Amino acid sequence: MKLINVATTVALLASSAHGQKALEWNEPTSGVTYGLAVPEAASAPFDVLLSIVAPAKAGWVGWAAGGCMLRSPILVAWPNGNTTVVSSRWANAYHPPAPYNGTSTKVFASSSTRNETHWKVSVLCSGCSQWVGGEVNSHGNATFGWGVSSHAVDTPASASSAIRFHDVGKGHFELDMNKARLSKDDFGALVKSLGG
Ligand code: HEM
Ligand SMILES: *[C@@H]1O[C@H](CO)[C@@H](O)[C@H](O)[C@H]1NC(C)=O
Ligand SMILES: *[C@@H]1O[C@H](CO)[C@@H](O)[C@H](O)[C@H]1NC(C)=O
Ligand SMILES: *[C@@H]1O[C@H](CO)[C@@H](O)[C@H](O)[C@H]1NC(C)=O
Ligand SMILES: *[C@@H]1O[C@H](CO)[C@@H](O)[C@H](O)[C@H]1NC(C)=O
What we know:
Layout: H1 6-10, E1 23-27, E2 32-39, E3 48-55, E4 60-64, E5 74-80, E6 83-90, E7 98-99, E8 104-107, E9 118-126, E10 130-131, E11 134-135, E12 141-149, E13 169-176, H2 177-180, E14 181-182, H3 184-193
Parallel strand pairs: 2-14
Antiparallel strand pairs: 1-2, 2-3, 3-9, 4-5, 4-12, 5-6, 6-7, 8-9, 10-11, 12-13
The structure holds protoporphyrin IX containing FE and 2-acetamido-2-deoxy-beta-D-glucopyranose (NAG) (4 copies).
One 2-acetamido-2-deoxy-beta-D-glucopyranose is lined by residues 81-82.
């Protein structure tokens, strides 16, 4: 098996024919790369395009819209066969987050694949930028949460599967939304390039 370094991994994320790109951030402990793009908007709500590239050993990878694990929409992704499942969750306490119906997500099947070394997913989320009690900044910096587990989920085919603790790590990361924000046309082109 070929070793893949961080620089190589970062180059793997979404980039359309005309170069529209998600803003990428590599989490060094887990080796997971998060990519984020949003369309131009004065303020939330706006759609959020999230991409994840995870090393094969990651059982699930999570993203929290509000930074903290608690009280904001969470997306949890995991491999299922050769595809990827994305589950919307919400946590009011430091317990396994429950399924959440305040978002609607669209997984781009052609961009959500698995091979020997990695699995990845691109998902468009409506409802991830605004919730009861908070929102994602459209301009300036925004803080997100990350969490990664080495444990495969119990029932990978089901979006409501039980998941286990983020033993690999968890924390917060800040992205400059001025760099994640694309014109509506560029955002549309990026979505299209991913199969949307
Ligand atoms: C079985 C599922 C989960 C359990 C039992 C769990 C439990 C916990 C606990 C006990 C803490 C605080 C104690 C500590 O520092 O270790 C914590 C913190 C955290 N968790 Fe989870 N968690 C789960 C899933 C998730 C998911 C899916 C995410 C998605 C990103 C996440 C993100 C975070 C973050 C960012 C923190 C840092 C503190 C904070 O911002 O609230 N967790 N979790
Ligand atoms: C997954 O992909 C591999 C390689 O393309 C293929 O051989 C295998 O049959 C696929 N598995 C499933 C469950 O689709
Ligand atoms: C969504 O979840 C809320 C809170 O649990 C619940 O009150 C509501 O009925 C749910 N809506 C749907 C369409 O399931
Ligand atoms: C496996 O997937 C990763 C992530 O998409 C990609 O960078 C890598 O080139 C793929 N490996 C092979 C052998 O296709
Ligand atoms: C915004 O986030 C970036 C990291 O993406 C960081 O380098 C920068 O210091 C932050 N700016 C402010 C004003 O917090």
